[in-house]
Each structure stands twice: as C-alpha cells, then as structure tokens.
Design brief:
six-stranded antiparallel β-sheet, Chitinase A, domain 3, 539 residues, alpha+beta, 5 domains
Length: 539
C-alpha cells in the first residue's frame, strides 16, 4: 500500500539531484510483481522525457524520481493508489495492479538553468581571453550527463575551428568559451534549450539532452589582429636596424600558441636567409623582421591571416596563430659597400697601401654576431698578399687600401663583396657579413700598374747582347731567368713583390717570345716603352 524505493546503484559523485520542476530523461523497465513486463523504454530505443512534480507522471513515479542523481538506478514499487488505481489501463495495466519499475536516470535539468563552467586547468600566464567575434581553435570531448560520448575532435585528430559569439555555435558553447585562455581546460555543461533543444541534432544527440563539453583551447585570434612583438633581448649597441630591402640571416623556433613546435632552423643547424619587406616570407614575418638589430632576440606572434591562412601548410594547421622566437645573426643591404672603422693610425703615416703593394698583416675574422671564424694570431704567422691582385675577396682588397704600417682598423664586408651566397663550406656560412679586425705590420711598395719588373737605373743600350750570353743571337728561358736574377741580386732591377719569381720570369719571357718557338731574337725583343701599351702589357 506504500511506495517502495530501493537504491540499487548510487554514483560516487552526485553534484545535483532531482527536484520537483526539473526535467528528466530516464530509461525504465516496467513489470508486474510476477515479473511479467508491460513496458520498456529500452525497447523503444529512447528515454522517457518528462517534467517531475507537474502531474505528467503517475503520482508514485513523480515521488520516486525526486532525489535521484544522474546514473543512479532505483527499483520502485508503486501501489495502485499511486499508479493507475482501480481502473488500470485497458489492455495493458489491470485494475488495482502493483507496478515495479527499474529506473536509470540519464539526464536532469531545469528551465532556470544556465551554462555551467568548471575550469580545472588555467595557465599561469593568460595575456588574452576569448571575446565575442574572436576566432578559436579547440579540442573537445562531448558527452551526455551520464558520460556517454557522442563526439570528439580528438578522435578526428583535428581541432574545431570557429568564431565565437556570432551564432556559428550553439548558444551555450558561445557562452562557455568566453573568457578562456589559450591552454585552459574547462568543462562546459549546457542545458538543452541552449543546445539542440527538443529535436536534438537529428544524429547523435537526442531531443532535450544536456550536453557536457570537456574543452582545451589551443588557439585564439581576432580578424582585426596585427602582429604582436615581444622584445626578449635588444643589444645595448645597435648601430643599425633592418629596413625594407635588407637581407637577413636569423635563427628561429616556430610554435603554435599552445607551444607545439612545428619548425626550427636550429634543428637544421642553418640560419634562415631572406630579404625583408619583399614578399619572400609570410606577411607577418615580413613585418616582424623590420627594425631589428644584429644579435636581437624577439618573439613575433602572427595571426593566421598574416600567416598561412585557413589552409595552413605542412605541420601548420589551418587558421593557426604562429609564434616565432627569432635570433638575428646578421643583415645587410645589397647596396652596402665595405665599412671601415680606424681604431689607431700612427702619427708618421706617410706611406699608404695601394694596388700592387705587398702587405703582411694580422687579422681576426668573425661574423656579425661575434662568432670567430679565423685568426692569424692563433696560427702564429701573418697573412701576406699583393693588394688588388685577387688573392683575397674583393671586400678585403678594398678594406686594405690606404693603410699605413702599424694602423689598426675594422673592416665589415657584405657577402656580395665577400664569399657570396655559397660561403665556404664548413667555414663561412652563405650570405654572411664578415668582420675583420686588421693590423698592418709590413708594406713593400709594388711596381707601377702593368709592370712586373723595373730597372733601378739606366737601361743598357746593349741589353739584348748582355742577356744573350753565348752570343748566338737567340735568348733561351734559362739565359733570360739567370740575367733577371742577377739584376735583382745586384740591385739594378726590381721584381713585383709577393709573386713567385719563376712565374714572373716565365711570363716576361713568353711576352717577348712573340712567335712562341721558345726563343727570343733581337727582332722580337722590345722594352715596354718601345711598344704600344694598348697592344701589350708585360705582366
């Protein structure tokens, strides 16, 4: 004669219990005391959905559901007076029947409910939160209140990407995402009237279902965003900042907003080299690389419309905000020339280096970021060259001009006057600006341009006869070489300094041997001032 309730399963967590006025979704088996089944929601494949305490149920069930938790199971015995009484239900429930119900509560909500947000992880740093009209990328698991999974972006291995607050989402999700930080994790519980309502979505979500979304926010931007720059290290000395048209070499780590690494120049052990402001890189990087100093470290945050857009690229998903931590190694402009800074010049600086002079100097060679490439000091010997003869890169030939012995200077050489785009494998990176700290130690004046040998006095009028030692009317290379060597040894003549003696003499001999037979005759033999310079330059 009394209502009987047996709680056969009660979940450990019960944040909310049924109260009169709540709307519930539950499954049930209905049977008579002898076990004969008269009804089952399972057989229909859908829950029974109803308000509690509003007379939509038999009185016994209205009472039995109060206090239930989602996922709780109750066995309910309802006497006739709280069921269908003396009339019963013709053809289904006989008069004065005691009814047994095995009830499992699936869902529970109230028309006064709002979206519930429970944050269970929030990053320490939260520079920005989701606002209306922002575009977000997030992962989620979608379940019903009883924990049944109906959808998951994780299973698709792709984020859900959408605008917030402009009607692209169900209203409850629009609300639940507001105020989130990138990296934040929260549970958003949405009543059906802020979700898919009475009809559901026609697929996985039934009508009147409360939805629970476990969300982690991965990305966030607004279509009106520009790039953001965070300076991490700016050198105290910054004589020059990058401008449009400059060529930069820089290292970078590229990550998504959630910290996922998608690329790194460090892993390739090679800088990324590019022109700036010319469209060679994505628009956001083009902008973010302007105004940097050599040695500077900065973070550049690039929204997708200035990055790789909706389509993404490679490991970069569509609509992703990109974070680049860059370190500028060097930069130059194709119009740059050699830069010379004199640190010390002797007071008695009268003899200046010029093309053709033989120079001995020490140097330290480094990159713009200070990386040491080479040093003559470590080798314990000077570097020796003939200035302007192509024995060093063009920029060094230019940088050594007009120096006096004892002078110290720094020469900065752009790559187009150095080792170019290719560099020197294993030694000098491609497109690298070079810095040479130089001290000139010795200078031997060279000969006038175009000469490899000059006389220190008057030239003998019988020069051919003097060279032709055996007086056979022909001069061989051996005779010619011996004669020149004697003139140099006795101080009567001077060879261009810094060159190999045998090569110079052979070249001079070849110039005189006009018919190429290996012999010079008196008719062939001419001094330099005896022949038109435009026709022949004796090396």
């Amino acid at each position: 004669t009394e209502l009987g309730i047996e709680r056969r399963f009660v979940p450990e967590s019960c944040p909310r219990a049924v109260r009169p006025g709540d709307f519930v979704r539950y499954h049930y088996l209905g049977a008579f005391p002898d076990g004969t089944r008269f009804d089952s929601s399972y057989d229909r494949g859908s829950t029974f959905n109803v308000f509690v305490g509003k007379g939509q149920l038999i009185a016994g069930m209205d009472q039995a559901l109060v206090g239930m938790c989602v996922n709780e199971r109750r066995f309910v015995k309802i006497p006739p007076k709280l069921a269908y009484g003396s009339e019963g239900v013709p053809g289904v429930i006989p008069p004065n029947a005691v009814l047994h119900f095995d009830v499992l509560l699936i869902d529970l909500w109230n028309s006064e409910d709002e979206v519930q947000v429970q944050t269970y992880f929030k990053p320490e740093k939260c520079p920005r939160t989701v606002q209306v009209s922002d575009f977000v990328r997030y992962h989620y698991n979608g379940t019903f209140l009883d924990g049944t999974l109906f959808d998951s972006s994780h299973n698709r291995m792709r984020t859900y990407d959408t605008y917030v607050g402009i009607g692209w989402l169900i209203p409850g999700m629009d609300q639940g995402l507001l105020g989130m930080c990138v990296g934040e994790k929260r549970i958003i519980t949405i009543p059906p009237f802020l979700a898919y309502g009475e009809d559901g979505d026609g697929k996985e979500i039934p009508g009147q279902a409360s939805l629970v979304f476990d969300v982690v926010l991965l990305d966030l931007h607004n279509p009106k965003d520009g790039i953001a720059i965070e300076n991490q290290l700016v050198p105290e000395s910054c004589e020059r900042r990058s401008q449009t048209g400059d060529f930069l070499r820089y290292h970078y780590n590229g990550t998504l907003l959630d910290g996922t690494l998608f690329d790194s120049s460090y892993s390739r052990n090679r800088t990324y080299d590019t022109y700036v402001g010319k469209g060679y890189v994505i628009a956001g990087m083009d902008e973010g690389l302007l105004g940097v100093c050599t040695g500077e470290k900065r973070r550049i945050i690039i929204p997708p419309h200035l990055g790789y857009g909706e389509e993404g690229r490679g490991k970069i998903p569509g609509s992703a905000v990109l974070v680049f931590d860059i370190h500028v190694v060097d930069f130059h402009n194709p119009l740059d020339s050699v830069s010379i800074t004199v640190h010390y010049k002797p007071s008695n600086c009268t003899v200046l280096s010029k093309k053709g002079d033989y120079l001995k100097y020490h140097y330290n060679a480094s990159l713009l970021d200070g990386t040491l490439l080479d040093s003559t000091h470590s080798l314990g010997k000077t570097y020796n060259i003939v200035l302007g003869s192509g024995q060093v890169v063009l920029g060094m030939d230019m940088g050594l001009q007009d120096m006096c012995v004892g002078e110290r200077r720094t020469v900065v050489i752009p790559p187009h006057l150095g080792y170019g785009e290719d560099g020197v494998e294993g030694e000098v990176p491609g497109s690298a600006v070079l810095v040479f700290d130089i001290e000139l130690l010795e200078l031997v004046s060279g000969l006038p341009e175009g000469y490899m040998f000059v006389w220190n006095g008057e030239v003998s009028p019988n020069l051919f006869e003097e060279i032709d030692q055996n007086h056979d009317g022909e001069v061989l290379l051996e005779e010619f070489s011996e004669y020149i060597q004697t003139q140099v040894d006795t101080g009567k003549g001077k060879l261009a300094p810094g060159f190999d003696f045998e090569k110079i003499v052979k070249n001079m001999f070849t110039n005189q041997d006009r018919d190429g037979n290996g012999k010079v005759t008196a008719e062939e033999f001419k001094l330099k001032d005896q022949e038109a310079r435009e026709e022949h330059d004796e090396l």
